[in-house]
Amino acid sequence: MSAPDHILDCNCESVTWLCFSPGADWLAVAASVPYIRLWSLSDRRLTRAMPAPRVGRTDALHLWYDWVSFTRDGTCVLSLDCDGRLCLCDTQSDTCESLAEFSKCISVAALAPDSCTLAWGTDEGVVVWDLRLRKTERALDFGVAAPGLVSCVGFSPSGDTVAAALDSDTAVTVFGLGDASPLLRLVGHDDLVLALDYSQDGRLLATASRDNSVRVWRLDGGQEIARFQGDGNLVRSVAFSPNGYSGI
Length: 248
Fold this sequence. Notes:
Blueprint: E1 15-20, E2 26-31, E3 36-40, E4 45-50, E5 65-70, E6 76-81, E7 86-90, E8 96-98, E9 108-111, E10 117-122, E11 125-130, E12 135-140, E13 150-155, E14 161-166, E15 172-176, E16 181-186, E17 193-198, E18 204-209, E19 213-218, E20 223-229
Antiparallel strand pairs: 1-2, 2-3, 3-4, 5-6, 6-7, 7-8, 9-10, 10-11, 11-12, 13-14, 14-15, 15-16, 17-18, 18-19, 19-20
């Protein structure tokens, strides 16, 4: 194994999420600390530590972040903290905005490729939210009375479908955003699905599960076309390569 090119010392117990800016100039790091770190990759320098609003919370020192994503133009960073609150931070001014107050905490979130739409999950299902207008576009119904907590969610590259899974189920549901209806239900895992990723052409979906497997599905019919077994107890994440021919 080759040696690392550089080590970025985050000075924290754990890193929970990483995201490159669209031009690969910056790296945003979510970790077990009450702010988002922004690293300049040209000189490997920590340039900003952006604290998010502490709305309704007094013990800010015990706040951490579970997810972070750049907008398409790289000027803003979206984050999801451990209390289930979404924030939008400007990378130039370091100003942060709490996007909304919700009666239910958010478990997972995803940003559409056009950076205009968010999808997030709670214990009541998936909400699709207009980031420009700051309002809900639609709710995605799994068709069950008590769906359970959403365990993962993601947009297709075209932004016209959303895939999501519940912690009370072992299947993945693919929704069309035109009428918010379920298009496919991908059944095959033996335990809950923890992560998913679309291929770049939007034809395939990879899913990672607590059953210690990664499965690849063809979305034009919902067939499982490949299965990879892990060597541990579970698989927490999965991602396609840009050309769609391999994954990790």
